[in-house]
Write a structure and sequence with these properties.
alpha+beta, eight-stranded mixed β-sheet, four-stranded antiparallel β-sheet, 3 helices, about 35% strand, rod-shaped
Length: about 240
Amino acid sequence: MIKKLLHFLIKALLVLLIFISAGFSQTEKHRLQIIAEKPFELFLNDFSFGTHLYFDTLLQTDVYKIEAYILEDEPIKNIFKKIVYLNADLIIRLDSFYFVNVRSNPDDAQVYFDSLYFGATPLNLKLLFKPTLLELRKNGYKVHQEDISDFYNYDFFINLEKEKFEKPSFVFDYKYIALTSTIISGALAAYTKQLANKFFYKLDRSDEDLRKVKVYDRYSGIFTIGMEISFGIFVYLLLQE
């Protein structure tokens, strides 16, 4: 009885594995067609597929980055660039042009349409698709993001807002360390100067006393310089707040 049950389970498992492997091997494919009036250079997932006037192929269901560049002797590029989830037959016609002019203050901001990079400002393009999202990014400035799905005019001038960075806490700590160093250095400078005066104004001053005067004067000068440096650092950190 147990052997029959084991044989049945093994056969059932084999049948299940066959069905699973058959399902994996028969992945559905969809037709992708790209049509243009002029030759275009095509890239799929950043791989070059050469130059075409008409492109027709079958692709498995997946996400694809499709880029097409119309080959013209114009200073303004004609670009189609989109991320596409191909789960059905798709026809792309490169016959709609959207003139785009993006300027920013400051210049050299990175321009993204629908999360894909297109260049840096100032930027002039002819897009072969209708964009829905504009993003500008530049180090030290806040990301500018704008929904442009309802726009018909794509002439932009954008003032970027500077990023506000929180001052690290160590600036606060160093400020009070500098203040403490100023007080201690000042106290030591005054104390060593008093010791120098003590030995200098002795009635029975000896050569050893004069040597001590020079030593304490030297120490007083060093501590005075330290006090001035510490106070300068304190003032600088205070002004940074």
